[in-house]
Amino acid sequence: MGLLLRVLCEKNIPLLVHFKPSRRRRSVGVANATLPHFLTTPPTLPNASTTPSPDGEGEEGSKVTLVVYAKESTVISNLRHFTSYQIEIHACNHPTDPQRCSMATYVSARTMPEKKADDIVGQVTHEMVSEHPESVHIKWLDPKAPNGMIILYEVNYKRLGDLEELHHCVSRKAYTQIGGCRLRVVHPGNYTVRIRATSLAGNGSWTEPTFFFMPDKDTTSLKIIIGSVICFILLLFVGGGVFMIFKKKQTEGPTGPLIASSNPEYLSANDMYVPDDWEVAREKINILKELGQGSFGMVYEGIAKDIVKGEPDTRVAVKTVNESASLRERIEFLNEASVMKAFSCHHVVRLLGVVSKGQPTLVVMELMTHGDLKSFLRCLRPDSENNPTGKPPPTLKEMIQMAGEIADGMAYLNAKKFVHRDLAARNCMVAEDNTVKIGDFGMTRDIYETDYYRKGGKGLLPVRWMAPESLKDGVFTAHSDCWSFGVVLWEVSTLAEQPYQGLSNEQVLKFVMDGGYLDKPENCVERIHNLMSMCWQYNPKMRPTFQEIIEMLKEDVHPSFQEVSFFYSEENKLPETEEFDLDLENMESIPLDPSSYSQREDSDSVSRDNGSSQNLRGNYEEHVPYAHMNGGKKNGRILSLPRSSPS
């Protein structure tokens, strides 16, 4: 740090310059250049070395002498940052003869502040205050060499999920007393805190956010006191028998373990959630940043310690449940974790652990860096704002790879007797290496709420992905999952356009139940479209299984598929079953709807023509079936749909 000093004088005249830190250097102000005013006083005898000044001691009283020859300016270096200096200048004919020096001229100047001098270095720590359960003690270190002096500290903190930060100002005196500050935190939960210092020169930088957890208040003592008083009163008036009954009821309060059932439709008293081998200690989870909003709460990226064998630190996705969530929502949140504990497949997102002790409840999942497949596909559109690098849409080989990976995950779920019921691009996740996996079940319903429809006051239904039998009778099977798989293929081919665009949910519901299905996407290759059509057979039993779909695609998937897929695993080697041949040429074509059996025609005429559609009668049971419903050729044409456009 230095000052540039310019003096108007004749050349070849030596200058004698004395300078020392001003006693006013800690006054509030902004760093400035040389002040424009000069004070002239009777000459004094300058010293040729550093000497203490009579008006002070130590650093503020020391005086440094500098002799400058034949110059009109000089730079005084090695000064302290943001410090005021008083400079005394004499013009001398000879530096050793003070009688031949001019009268002194004085000037005051302040050095510039240093940019990072006010930043707080070191770690911000916290500890709970035992005598005050609602308080947390935040500690940090003073900046080593601030600009001037530290006036105050600003402490901003908030609970995770809240939008606004709470502000707390800490004076210099308050910081000195306890080496930090105490925050009064009323509501339990996870909090972040960040701090910055304010000096005479201005504000320093904010520290990185530090996380701390505020547990629920310990009300055990209060409950014991209240219970004792009540029991004593009952003993006086009712007697020992009534007292025992009351104690029994008192222990059966509304609080207790959450119920978690693997079947989301039913809850049983036997389905208590008990921590098991999947339980992870809360201190092993370090939350890094927010990833987005899930249907139950926020989703964060974090680091988990020793959660995967052989990996000391693992990047994970941490899902939370809102603190305002109802008991039912908490149960559903644990239901999802309970379901996924039974799954171990490369093409199904893995559950890594559960933190059920304390609040909030956390579910630790495998991190899928590219998010859900729907958002991933939309980012690959040429006109997408989220595609600055201009990544091209997926090639045919990449589409087949995606289809094979999704089919393998669904084949695994089918082998586990699990029906997904909500297969869609939004519920598939994309890993860092672009591997597509069946996502966490039920977690995206709130995010893509427009993809769901409430039918007749019942729960939300993804009608645009549902099979006819599911829409009509509420039947969900592996066959209905296959229909949804065909819609996912359509989403992949259109880069996640909305299915049946231009139709309302009610129109889609009637359209599909009447035998309609999606048009062939623009520029879609015949091979992919043929696979879609097979999945959209009206008769559920005519649709292929996921094992059969992989058989069709296995020649064109990446060789690594054999090493990681369920299809090629030992687990998939089932005992041999009795085989039978189908005489497809002589097979009688029977419609799914028994009432329309009398209306079918010869099985040779199952191909669609370009003639006009038959008028449909009012009752659905009387509808003439389409060709893909195993009906006659006159009804082989699907209902027309408006051409989908990018959404």
From TrEMBL:
One GO biological process term: positive regulation of phosphatidylinositol 3-kinase/protein kinase B signal transduction
Membrane topology: Single-pass type I membrane protein
CDD domains: FN3, PTKc_InsR
Keyword terms, alphabetized: ATP-binding, Disulfide bond, Glycoprotein, Kinase, Membrane, Nucleotide-binding, Phosphoprotein, Receptor, Repeat, Transferase, Transmembrane, Transmembrane helix, Tyrosine-protein kinase
Bilayer-crossing regions: 224-246
Family statement drawn from the similarity comment of this UniProt entry: Belongs to the protein kinase superfamily. Tyr protein kinase family. Insulin receptor subfamily.
Protein name, per record: Tyrosine-protein kinase receptor
Source species of the chain: Oncorhynchus mykiss (Rainbow trout)
High-level lineage: Eukaryota, Metazoa, Chordata, Craniata, Vertebrata
